[in-house]
Write a structure and sequence with these properties.
13 strands, Rossmann fold, alpha/beta, 10 helices, seven-stranded parallel β-sheet, elongated, 318 residues, single chain, six-stranded mixed β-sheet, 2 domains
Length: 318
C-alpha cells in the first residue's frame, strides 16, 4: 500500500475543475460518494455543501453529505465513515475532525477498497503510515502558507510591533494548528511583537466572545488579534465592541464569510483569509471519481487562498 507523503512534496495547483471527465459508475449505473465534514455550524461548511451538490448534480454523482452537530464530536464522525462503508459508498470525501482519531476507520476503508479523499483538513501522515493506511489525496489550501498571508499583513501594518492575542481552534486538528503557527511565526520572526494571550475558543463564536472579554479585562493594551476561523473572529469583534476599549485593535481571521466581508467594509475586521470552499468541494469530488477510476493522484491537490481586505473585498469571487 502506498504511504501518504509529506505535504512538502510537489503539489498540483487547481484554479478550476472541469465537469467533462467521465465519472466511474457502479454496476447499477450510479456513482455513490459519501461526503463527510466536521459540522454545518458556519457559512464555510454550508458553502462547501452547496459546491459539492452543484458538482454532483452536473456529474451524475449520488452524493450523501453529512456532518456531526459539533466539530468536537469526533465519535459521531467516525460512525458516519463506518456507515458509509456499510452502505457501499464508492468513495469517501472526509474533512477529519481529528488528525489521528479517524486513522483506524480510514484503514478499514483502505482494506475495503474504498478511496478516501481528504478535504480542508489533513490526517497526521506519520501516524497514518504507521498504521499502514493511505489516502488518495488531500484537496485544500496550504494552511500554513495561507495563515502567513495574514501574519505578513499584520507585521506590515504594525511596523512598531505590538501586543497580540491568538484565538486557537480545536485541539488535535492539524489544519487549525497550521493556521495558528503560520500567523504566529510571522509575528515572532518580526521580533517586536509580544503574545499576551493564546487561548482556545473551539471555533465557536460565543466562546470566542467570552474568551476575548476575559483577555481584554487583564490585557487592555491589545494591538492585534488572530482568530483561526470566522466564527471566532466575529466573537472577538463583538467582545471588543462591548469592552469599552477605545484603542484600535486589528482583528484578522480565516474563511472570509459574509459576516467577515461586512466587518471588513465596516472596518471592524482588517483582513480574512479566503479559502474558497466551493472550489475545494469540486476538487475533492473530481479527485474521488478519478480515484475510483484507478488514477494515481498527487499527495496534495492544492487550491487557492487569498487575503481579503478593504482593497479587494468587493471583487471577491469563487
Amino acid at each position: 500500500m502506498r504511504k501518504i507523503l509529506s505535504l512538502l512534496l510537489t503539489t498540483v495547483v487547481l484554479f478550476g475543475f472541469s465537469s467533462c471527465s467521465s465519472t466511474p459508475r457502479d454496476q447499477d449505473g450510479v456513482t455513490r460518494i459519501a461526503y463527510i465534514v466536521k459540522a454545518m455550524s458556519d457559512e464555510f461548511w454550508t458553502d462547501m455543501r452547496a459546491g459539492a451538490e452543484e458538482y454532483a448534480a452536473a456529474n451524475d454523482i449520488e452524493l450523501t453529505f453529512q456532518a456531526p452537530d459539533k466539530e468536537t464530536d469526533v465519535e459521531r464522525q467516525i460512525q458516519m465513515v463506518e456507515n458509509a462503508l456499510v452502505s457501499k459508498a464508492d468513495a469517501i470525501v472526509l474533512s477529519a475532525a481529528d488528525s489521528k482519531a479517524l486513522i483506524p476507520v480510514i484503514v478499514r476503508a483502505n482494506r475495503a477498497g474504498v478511496p478516501v479523499v481528504l478535504v480542508n483538513d489533513t490526517i497526521d501522515p506519520d501516524a497514518l503510515a504507521a498504521h499502514g493506511g493511505y489516502v488518495a489525496t488531500y484537496v485544500g489550501i496550504d494552511q500554513y502558507k495561507a495563515a502567513e498571508l495574514a501574519g505578513k499583513d499584520a507585521v506590515a501594518q504594525h511596523p512598531g510591533g505590538g501586543n497580540v492575542v491568538l484565538l486557537e481552534g480545536i485541539a488535535g486538528v492539524s489544519a487549525l494548528q497550521q493556521r495558528l503557527d503560520g500567523f504566529k511565526d510571522q509575528i515572532t520572526s518580526a521580533g517586536n511583537f509580544t503574545i499576551v494571550a493564546s487561548q482556545t475558543a473551539n471555533n465557536d463564536r460565543n466562546q470566542a466572545f467570552n474568551v476575548m472579554q476575559n483577555i481584554l479585562q487583564s490585557n487592555p493594551e491589545v494591538d492585534v488579534v488572530w482568530a483561526i476561523n470566522a466564527e471566532m473572529g466575529q466573537g472577538a469583534i463583538q467582545a471588543i465592541q462591548q469592552s469599552g476599549v477605545t484603542r484600535p485593535i486589528a482583528v484578522y481571521d480565516f474563511d472570509a464569510s459574509a459576516d467577515d466581508r461586512a466587518a471588513i467594509r465596516a472596518e471592524t475586521l482588517v483582513g480574512s483569509v479566503a479559502q474558497f470552499p466551493k472550489l475545494q468541494a469540486a476538487g475533492a469530488l473530481k479527485a474521488a471519481t478519478d480515484a475510483i477510476a484507478g488514477q494515481k493522484l498527487e499527495d496534495h491537490t492544492v487550491t487557492k487562498a487569498e487575503l481579503i481586505t478593504k482593497d479587494n473585498v468587493d471583487t471577491l469571487n469563487e
